[in-house]
Amino acid sequence: MQLFGFFRRRPPFRDSGALADFIDEQSAFVAQKAIYEYSRARAGHYAKVLFSEQSFLDAAERSRWLAYPVGLAMVAEVVEGVLRPHRSNDARRQFDALCALVLSVFDRYPVPEALGAAAWNEARVELARRLQLIGLHPPKRVIDISVPFEKTYFDLLPIHEKLRQSDFPTTCNYLKVTLCNIHDELTKRMDAPALAESLGAQNA
């Protein structure tokens, strides 16, 4: 029965294609969950009214797409930190392969109508820059990965600035907890040596 399948452990992943799907899924979750749940909580009893207003829906859609590459950068750093101890002698090639993989995930999506080509291209350039920074320092604790992104992410929430000023700590905590959960899911499901080998073979 399908019911019992629901409780089965999700299958492990061992290659770069499965890793790309994981990064995409988790980044989309980071990008969307707080935007919609925070807005719903902030609106309270008026949430139904707020979510029926086209101006809000347009703002939320723009926020969602701008937050997606931010999510990609954070999730990529989680992945890199987990895989770094499993690198082969050609660590630079594996790191470059991970960066290329993350950018290929970004490139799965056409230019969002809510942003336009210029803003979407700018987001890709910034993502590439963020990815290169990962390799310039030792792996961070998972709870510290979100710190450089917190204000950027918070500023994307589609609620007026005066109404959300006191909610910055809550948003920061959400990002920390979410990245910890992603880290746990990653370590449970991945075959780290196989993934490292798969990435190393990308540019061989």
Unreliable residue stretches = 1-7
Mean of residue pLDDT? 83
From the N-terminal CA to the C-terminal CA, the straight-line distance is 44 Å
Beta-strand portion reads: under 5%
Radius of gyration: 18 Å
Number of helices: 11
Write the element-wise H/E pattern from the N-terminal end onward: HHHHHHHHHHH
Biggest sheet features: none
Number of strands: 0
- What helical percentage do the residues reach? over 70%
Task: Tell me the count of domains.
Answer: 1
Decide which structural class fits the backbone.
Answer: mainly alpha
**How would the global form be characterised?**
globular
Describe the structure.
With 204 residues, the chain is an all-alpha fold. It has one domain (15-200). Helices cover 71% and strands 0% of the residues. Helix 2 (16-43) packs across helix 4. The relative contact order is 0.19. Residues 1-7 have low confidence and may be disordered.
Protein topology:
Blueprint: H1 2-5, H2 16-43, H3 47-50, H4 54-83, H5 91-106, H6 117-134, H7 142-145, H8 150-155, H9 161-164, H10 168-189, H11 192-200
Helix pairs in contact: 2-4, 2-5, 2-10, 4-5, 4-6, 4-10, 5-11
Descriptive key words:
single chain, 204 residues, mainly alpha, 71% helix, globular, disordered N terminus
Write a compact overview of the structure shown.
This protein is mostly helical and 204 residues long. Helix content is 71%, strand content 0%.
